Amino acid sequence: MVSAATRIAVLLLTIVAAAGSAVASQNFLDGAYGNKDGCAYAKTGDYTGSDDFFLLTDEGITTAASYCSFKGPVTKNGKSFAATVSCSAEGETGEADDSVDILRTGKDYAIAFKGGTRWGPLKKCK
Fold first, then answer.
1. Distance CA 17, CA 123 (A)
2. Continuous segment of H or E residues that includes residue 100
3. What domain range includes position 104?
4. pLDDT tens profile 75-90
């Protein structure tokens, strides 16, 4: 049986490989935003194995079990942004498109999917 940490590590490696071959996306953030484990990954590239993992970059949104890449332009709306994302989740085949708002809340960002899921606040990674 494959451990959850191994599945997540494979998912992250797949994401990194896909991101490396993708067309460069627009820069709309002033750096990476995440929680403790997401920022640790942004800084070192090493996954801690945590199930509590959130990272927002100009390329996409990464969690412990899913990855959403930005599809098309990211639209600015005041201090916030709106985008269409293409998401893949651990254990599922294929990708699903969704709409997401990247909301500026003070110095942080929160991610709100049209279906009601909300992640954040995500602090700027140091």
1. 26
2. strand 96-105
3. 4-124
4. 999 999 999 999 998 8
Task: State phi, psi for 8 to the nearest 5 degrees.
Answer: -70, -40
Write b or e for each residue in 60-96: b if 16 or more Cβ atoms lie within 10 A of its Cβ, otherwise e: bbbbbbbbbbbbeebeeeeeebbbbbbbbeeeeeeee
Rounded distance, CA 124 to CA 77, Å? 20
Report the number of distinct structural domains present in the chain.
1
Q: List Cα–Cα distances, 28 to 25, 49, 60, in angstroms.
A: 9, 28, 11
Q: Could you identify the residue written with the tokens 């599945």?
A: 7
Which of residues 109 and 22 earns the better pLDDT score? 109
Tokens matching residue 118: 């909300």
At residue 46, the 3 state secondary structure works out as coil
pTM for the complete prediction?
A: 0.78
**What is the per-residue pLDDT across 4-52, written as a single tens digit (0 to 9) for each?**
444 454 444 444 444 433 444 578 999 999 999 999 999 998 888 888 9
